[in-house]
Amino acid sequence: MQAVSENTVVADATLDVEAYMLRLGQQARQASRQMAAASTAAKNTALLAMADAIDASRETLHLANEQDLQQGREKGLDAAMLDRLALTPARIDGMIEGLRQVVALQDPVGAISDMSFRPSGIQVGKMRVPLGVIGIIYESRPNVTCEAASLCLKSGNAAILRGGSEARHSNQAIAECIRHGLAAADLPAEAVQVVETTDRAAVGKLITMPEFVDVIVPRGGKGLIERISNEARVPVIKHLDGNCHVYIDDKADVDKAVAVAENAKTQRYGTCNTMETLLVAEGIASTVLPLLAERYHAHGVEMRGCPVALPYLGDEAIAASEADWETEYLAPVLAIKVVSGLDEAIAHINQYSSAHTESIITEDFDRSQRFLREVDSSSVMVNASTRFADGFEYGLGAEIGISTDKIHARGPVGLDGLTSQKYIVLGQGHIRQ
Amino acid sequence: MQAVSENTVVADATLDVEAYMLRLGQQARQASRQMAAASTAAKNTALLAMADAIDASRETLHLANEQDLQQGREKGLDAAMLDRLALTPARIDGMIEGLRQVVALQDPVGAISDMSFRPSGIQVGKMRVPLGVIGIIYESRPNVTCEAASLCLKSGNAAILRGGSEARHSNQAIAECIRHGLAAADLPAEAVQVVETTDRAAVGKLITMPEFVDVIVPRGGKGLIERISNEARVPVIKHLDGNCHVYIDDKADVDKAVAVAENAKTQRYGTCNTMETLLVAEGIASTVLPLLAERYHAHGVEMRGCPVALPYLGDEAIAASEADWETEYLAPVLAIKVVSGLDEAIAHINQYSSAHTESIITEDFDRSQRFLREVDSSSVMVNASTRFADGFEYGLGAEIGISTDKIHARGPVGLDGLTSQKYIVLGQGHIRQ
């Protein structure tokens, strides 16, 4: 019994992680019952107490974050990664402000809608209810811990948060503030649990215990999300690519077309709602493309055009290949294609788009209506920049992510997306005949 | 090259099934684009033409069904199975009537809601859109072919239908009528495809091609649904057990309590919304249980009581075991437990229920509100029989199933459950600052 092989140790460690995650799951399920019944006042009290705790813990948060940054530098993380990891004073302000904004949001839980009487005499309608337990898996940004916790809490859910291992000291320090807030409102401490182990087996377990976890929201790169979707046995709210399109119709107003197509590409390059392919009707290509090429050139955007577009794009533009139509550059690069008209534009989008966000620029009513209806993406726009596709711009107040799925929630997911509706039936002793 | 081993043959057959299913998937995806854009008038024309085709094909349907019944008898199917398989004249009437009812339902596609202006000037709202391609997997009832096709069609989706192998002649005959209807409205024939192979690998492929199938709806026994949920790589709208509860509070009206608890158990035994466990507050047990025991006894319902309930249930009642609290009998058997009050009732339900349908009988307002809010089931009722939990009683007009899932749709799933909402944004050249 003394000779313990390395294999046994590994097996035991895995068992421990499994047991640990099962315990978190059980506790979360238990806490979710209390959270579902928690009053709006209690939830808001907790959120405000969290904000106060964070404000009072700036020094602690800074020291914890310094530990993570130090280890990150030693591990050779690149500058972008270290930047995402940093809890600057401005980001701490942002966390506090975010919590207060969530307090101001309407509580979705318990909202009753569509009550109507049926011929049998019963009254039937729907009540909005929390999903139960939400697992959030994210990468290096520690402020996500606070943001995700606040949205799950306000929507009456329990949360299990699994952040990146490189942010673990920061995440634990934030978790301490969250616990403080929950305690201040007499809500269960297990309503928000931050996974403490950095063992990757923890994620594997989290996404395969449907008895304790109702939905997983991964936040991070496409690789993370695809891996989780493939292995999960729990529903996943996915946010995959944003290969977004603007289509300039030949009945477009040229000024609007140029303004929107410039903004959609150049306002920010690294965001999921940035335009990646510009489609232009052949009837207007010779008018708008030279104007746009000038703008893109000034911004330093690399243009990759189809053979018809190229002559209008200036000397530095290069030929697009098939792969360009499928690519989310997240960079100052743009694919440009001339199409015969609306039909070809819609067909191109429905073939190549990641179903995130697309916009038509047109003054023609019928074409705008067809585009709205026939383009199968989570956000479809008329005469507006794709950059508007986010929860704040849409008035959701906050956003846990943007869904590129088709069931449950499409597009920016706010508090409502973390809830569902059950049926309620009121009678006076009604029985079925 | 001549010596082909049995293994090779199997592999080739599997490849053929895979290729066949991929073709169905591609065709369905293609057709789904046209269906999403189809007018309400075209969809209704197709449904009415299907009804006419079925009416005109009674003899063909009867002969095809006779083939299935004959083979079923030869295979030794039991009487219940053969009954489900039979396309009696009344069931054919039911199919025709069902199609006409779906025509009368409001088209959910394209409905726009919640349009509002944002501070940026854009106008944001939601548009209801089809899910895309729906795979339906069902067992022996051939009339499901017609019903599922009609609901998918009206909601603007393409459907791939995989019925039980024992009903294949009947299903193909119905499919012929469906194709006739689609053709009459100039809708693509591939909008509804009935899988022709009875190879089980077809199901395995259908549930693992997310690129062509957006959601799977299995209709059948728990075994089928669990198997599909475990293996699917596509979202599944699940309908698992209906372990439903009625809780008689000590502030219940005795007449209502007896009427509802009798009806919920005895109106039909084999349905998912039938009560399987009766909970009674101890303060009212000695009043209602003897009255109910008399009714149940008269109906031949076997009673299994907890130690406190047993003395009130008569000589034939037996002691309940832990397993009884978890069991969906689908039979004239009822578990009965006396609880201390509302808290214990809610805790018992949230622990043992399958989250399908539960009802409280009480005259107390606060308790009714707590029960509605804190019971985590897809239908929660006050003073009404659990038997009301279905799409027709709720006014959905038709139902593709009852979801015991928490995301996307809970409870009876009608046309809306086969759709989702995308965001639409209207501007006049708006760009993001």
TrEMBL record, chains A, B:
<protein>
    <recommendedName>
        <fullName>Gamma-glutamyl phosphate reductase</fullName>
        <ecNumber>1.2.1.41</ecNumber>
    </recommendedName>
</protein>
<dbReference type="InterPro" id="IPR012134">
    <property type="entry name" value="Glu-5-SA_DH"/>
</dbReference>
<comment type="function">
    <text>Catalyzes the NADPH-dependent reduction of L-glutamate 5-phosphate into L-glutamate 5-semialdehyde and phosphate. The product spontaneously undergoes cyclization to form 1-pyrroline-5-carboxylate.</text>
</comment>
<dbReference type="InterPro" id="IPR016161">
    <property type="entry name" value="Ald_DH/histidinol_DH"/>
</dbReference>
<dbReference type="InterPro" id="IPR000965">
    <property type="entry name" value="GPR_dom"/>
</dbReference>
<dbReference type="InterPro" id="IPR020593">
    <property type="entry name" value="G-glutamylP_reductase_CS"/>
</dbReference>
<dbReference type="GO" id="GO:0050661">
    <property type="term" value="F:NADP binding"/>
</dbReference>
<dbReference type="InterPro" id="IPR015590">
    <property type="entry name" value="Aldehyde_DH_dom"/>
</dbReference>
<keyword id="KW-0560">Oxidoreductase</keyword>
<dbReference type="GO" id="GO:0005737">
    <property type="term" value="C:cytoplasm"/>
</dbReference>
<dbReference type="GO" id="GO:0055129">
    <property type="term" value="P:L-proline biosynthetic process"/>
</dbReference>
<keyword id="KW-0028">Amino-acid biosynthesis</keyword>
<comment type="pathway">
    <text>Amino-acid biosynthesis; L-proline biosynthesis; L-glutamate 5-semialdehyde from L-glutamate: step 2/2.</text>
</comment>
<keyword id="KW-0521">NADP</keyword>
<dbReference type="InterPro" id="IPR016162">
    <property type="entry name" value="Ald_DH_N"/>
</dbReference>
<dbReference type="Pfam" id="PF00171">
    <property type="entry name" value="Aldedh"/>
</dbReference>
<comment type="similarity">
    <text>Belongs to the gamma-glutamyl phosphate reductase family.</text>
</comment>
<dbReference type="InterPro" id="IPR016163">
    <property type="entry name" value="Ald_DH_C"/>
</dbReference>
<dbReference type="GO" id="GO:0004350">
    <property type="term" value="F:glutamate-5-semialdehyde dehydrogenase activity"/>
</dbReference>
<keyword id="KW-0963">Cytoplasm</keyword>
<feature type="domain" description="Aldehyde dehydrogenase">
    <location>
        <begin position="9"/>
        <end position="298"/>
    </location>
</feature>
<keyword id="KW-0641">Proline biosynthesis</keyword>
<feature type="domain" description="Aldehyde dehydrogenase">
    <location>
        <begin position="325"/>
        <end position="389"/>
    </location>
</feature>
